[in-house]
Amino acid sequence: MLLVGSVGLQDSEEVFRTVGPILGARMKRIPDGETGPRTSWVSRLRFVLEGNPSFEDDPQEVAAGGRITHPTEGTRTWKGSAVIARGAAPPPRMRLKAGVRPGELRIGRLGYPEAAIDSYKGLCALRDQGVVPKHLRFQVSLPTTAAFLNAHLVYEHHATVEPIYRGRLFREVDEICEAVPHEDLAIQWDVSTEMGQWEGVRHAGFPDVKAGVIERLAMHCNRVPRDVELGVHLCYGSYGGRHWKEPESAANMVEVHNRLIEALDRPLAYIHMPVPVGRHDEAYFAPLLKLKLRRETKLFLGLLHDSDGVEGTRRRIAVAAKYASDFGIAAECGFGRRPPETIPNLLRVHSEV
């Protein structure tokens, strides 16, 4: 069993105390729930540009009243978080001010090491108390560079800012890996924007979209030290309780995995693929027959939903088992942005399947 990342509880201690006793024996890794400001995933990182003298709000999106989205995505609203109010549209993207040179750009701290180190200390304390099983690795789930660019920067400036932001992100990954023992750590990349580029719903500033996506994902994955577990969550979003596009089948996710694994110079511990609640048909799962899964990689299918509970989840498992011989189960995405009162039932479904 896998928890993708965010869990809509008050803080990391509550996540550890809640999840550890219920699911700990069935998991290999435990996230801190991405609580507080991190509940909104990459949206909180707007502060990185808002406080930066090289950037300003994009006038076109200001005039439009907010972020301009792809027609397939539609008007984006949020279920609520510590950063964005329930039902609110995300603010306009930002752009480089006129005359700013690439050599002048600086990206400040993102806050990932600080959060990880604090949560890890709490996890260690609870393990010592016997609240959380000692075998669980600490899982740190991180949005990629593409996610930040897509959320906060106008398209024309992606190429300029990309290497600078990526450098900052990678340095913070290094800090996490220096602070947490490698044998006790798993790092997961949340791959949503890249799936949108693959699906033609997100902008890609490179001519060969598929090759460009794989090249960038491989850079992120290969940055993680070989003795730290690596996971990849292929994500279709959870904006307002829905995907930015419903995947037609598992085919594109299978292709991303198969091409990515050839570009890695390190092992991949697990790959996560979502399954929409309405997809219990064989056509959705049939592409899994083409999945070139290596011995060290575990497939997790995000087919667990609280809306149809244990019965619906088992129905999807039965169909998936025709096309994948060995897989773990998970929710289709993190559940940090759903109403907190729904969390107990979702965890109950996890425990009963």
Neighbour order of strands in the largest sheet: 1-4-5-6-7-8-9
Number of helices: 12
Q: How many strands in all?
A: 9
Low-pLDDT sequence parts: 74-83
The CATH top-level class label: Alpha Beta
**Distance N to C terminus:** 10 Å
Q: Residue share in helices?
A: 25-40%
CATH architecture: Alpha-Beta Barrel
Which structural class do you get from the secondary structure elements?
alpha/beta
Beta content comes to: 5-15%
Based on Cα principal axes, name the global outline.
globular
SSE topology sketch:
Blueprint: H1 12-23, E1 29-31, H2 46-50, E2 55-57, H3 59-64, E3 94-96, H4 112-128, E4 137-143, H5 145-152, H6 158-179, E5 185-191, H7 193-199, H8 209-223, E6 229-234, H9 251-263, E7 270-274, H10 282-285, E8 298-304, H11 309-320, E9 328-331, H12 343-352
Parallel strand pairs: 1-4, 4-5, 5-6, 6-7, 7-8, 8-9
Antiparallel strand pairs: 2-3
Structural notes for this entry:
The termini are close together. This protein has a seven-stranded parallel sheet with strand order 1-4-5-6-7-8-9. Helix content is 37%, strand content 13%. It is α/β, with parallel strands linked by helices. It has twelve helices and nine strands. About 3% of the residues have low confidence.
